[in-house]
Amino acid sequence: MQAMRRAITAYGQASETLAPAQQIVLLYEGAIRRIKEARRAIEARRVAERVVAVQKATAIVEGLQGCLDHERGGEIARNLDRIYTHVVFRLQRINLTADPAICDELTALLEELRSAWAQLAAGASPAGAKRIEPAGQKPTAVTI
Predict the structure, then answer these.
(1) In whole angstroms, how far apart are CA 3 and each of 6, 8, 10, 105, 128?
(2) Are 49 and 41 in contact (CB under 8 A)?
(3) What's the whole-model pTM score?
(4) Are 30 and 143 in contact (CB under 8 A)?
(5) Which CATH class is domain 23-122?
(6) pLDDT tens for residues 27-71?
(7) 3-state helix, strand, coil in the chain (%, to 5)
(8) In this predicted model, what pLDDT tens digit does every residue of 104-128 receive, in sequence order?
(9) Cα→Cα distances 75→11, 62, 105, 139, Å
């Protein structure tokens, strides 16, 4: 319980001090970390750990999907929505098949997206200055 409180507090502080693009990068990193945990659990035949890791990765991706700004984001938001839907379906396949190749596929995809957002975040101003609000995506409060 204490660890969960610390995580929630840290996320709350990050959401107040980080630019939206930086928050999204952190969410991608969390999803990637959970998918890698699922892969390790598959290799070790730890079913319960795999299921929990996939659930956490799914929650992050669904959180990212849920905060898409379709009105402002236009085609970018539509494309991200399709990608997130694909990722969620593939995450569920991990639990159905215990296939580590799916973990590798999703890790590569999310790392590519994370890299693009990191480049956008690198152009963002520090907290308190004018922030770059990424078109099509708003930050979200997701438990990692």
Answers:
(1) 5, 9, 10, 30, 29
(2) yes
(3) 0.77
(4) no
(5) mainly alpha
(6) 999 999 999 999 999 999 999 999 999 999 999 999 999 999 999
(7) 80, 0, 20
(8) 999 999 999 999 999 988 885 444 4
(9) 29, 19, 24, 18
